[in-house]
Structure formats: structure tokens, C-alpha cells
Design a protein that fits this description.
Blueprint lengths: L1 H19 L4 E11 L24 E9 L5 E6 L5 H14 L5 E5 L3 H4 L1 H10 L1 E5 L10 H12 L7 H13 L6 H7 L4 E3 L3 E3 L5 E3 L4 E3 L1
Helix pairs in contact: 2-4
């Protein structure tokens, strides 16, 4: 999609370069929702039917994260209810204090609770620049890769205790700046997947006419 490439070349890539040169703090923001006993059952392959023990509830751990493009540190706001504009405002206030003295740019999608006037007004008051990606472009929000990594790490074990489930998620998130720093650096860098040759099938979906391209 031309809109994605234009966004990358004119906005995102220049911000990445400024962040690498220490001129700004560049963060990618999005929420992920972890449902215990639903999304993380693990995998077993075999010819014999087997029953896998799993938690019977639907307890959910919601994590709003802001990933620093350079350091890979992830700042979080979490709860077991919902992520709303209230949590977005709480995150903005937290980031303003954490990166005080630095110009802050946040890449985020167009979810209504992130693009509402309440959030925009607070961001302006705090001196934070909100940069909204084009519609239907989750590939441009690099924190999506991180959430996929976290969910992959969770699938190695069964959890029947919600507190332990939360603690494990928190420990994986904290690992971005120590034991998993190398893995996250490989996962999240300058290259962004673009869909230059996608053809519309309908107003709500696309297919790719050619292999995906990577913008370096």
C-alpha cells in the first residue's frame, strides 16, 4: 500500500534516525490482552487423542505497553478489566515523567480510545507528539512483534494460578533490557514490512499480488 510506504519514508524512518542519534525518545504503543486458559494451551502432536489440562476460567490480563525503539525498554500499565482512554492518559503521564527533558514521539494506531480528544489534549499539554499509523497497518507498529514474542514464551507452560500467570508475563516484559535484549534487538530494528503490491478485494480486506517488501 502506497500510504504505508509514504508513512514509512516521510515520517517513521526519519523519526527512527533521530531516535538512534539520541535526539528524541521514540516509542511504539499498543495494548495486548492475555487470557489465561484460552490462548496459551501449548501444543502436542501425535496419532493418539490426548486431553490437555487447562484452566477453566476466562481471567484476562490487559497490558498497555510503550516500547522504546532504541533501548527496547517497555513501560507498562496493566489491569484485569479494560484498557480505555483513562489508561492511555495514565501512560502519557508516566512517559512524560520517565523521559523528562526529551522530545517524545509515540507511534500508535487509530483506536478510538487512543485518538479521542481527551488523549490529544493531554498529549499536547505534556509536549508529547502522537503519530498515528495509516489504517489497517499493524505492521508499522513494531510493538506488535514484541507482543507476539511474549505470547510465544507463554506457550511453554500450563498456568492454573492467575497471579503466577501475571508474574510470568511481567518477567518476560522486563527481560527486554537484559537476558532477552539480543533477541528483541533482532526482532525490532530498522526494517519494516510493507505491502506495496497489495490489491483490494473489498473495502475491508486486501491480498498481496507480490511477495512482501522490507524497507531498510
Amino acid at each position: 500500500m502506497k500510504e504505508q510506504r509514504s508513512f514509512y519514508e516521510k515520517i517513521l524512518n526519519p523519526l527512527m534516525e533521530q531516535a538512534k542519534n539520541g535526539k528524541i525518545a521514540l516509542l511504539f504503543l499498543d495494548a495486548s490482552h492475555f487470557v489465561m486458559g484460552c490462548d496459551f494451551l501449548g501444543y502436542i502432536y501425535g496419532k493418539i487423542r490426548r486431553f490437555i489440562k487447562t484452566y477453566s476460567g476466562r481471567k484476562r490480563y490487559n497490558v498497555l505497553g510503550a516500547l522504546n525503539f532504541v533501548s527496547k525498554k517497555v513501560t507498562t500499565i496493566a489491569n484485569d478489566t479494560y484498557i480505555t482512554s483513562t489508561q492511555i492518559c495514565e501512560m502519557l503521564t508516566k512517559l512524560a515523567a520517565e523521559y523528562e527533558g526529551n522530545p517524545i514521539y509515540i507511534i500508535l494506531d487509530n483506536a478510538s480510545y487512543q485518538k479521542c480528544e481527551l488523549v490529544k489534549i493531554l498529549a499536547a499539554q505534556l509536549g508529547i507528539s502522537l503519530v498515528f499509523i495509516p489504517p489497517y497497518s499493524p505492521n508499522l507498529n513494531l510493538i506488535e512483534r514484541f507482543w507476539k514474542f511474549v505470547k510465544g514464551e507463554l506457550r511453554s507452560k500450563y498456568y492454573d494460578n492467575f497471579n503466577l500467570f501475571q508474574a510470568k508475563i511481567n518477567s518476560i516484559i522486563c527481560s527486554t533490557v537484559n537476558e532477552n535484549k539480543i533477541n528483541i534487538d533482532r526482532l525490532i530494528g530498522d526494517k519494516v514490512q510493507l505491502f506495496d503490491d497489495a490489491l483490494p478485494v473489498s473495502n475491508k480486506s486486501v491480498i498481496c499480488a507480490k511477495p512482501l517488501s522490507l524497507a531498510a
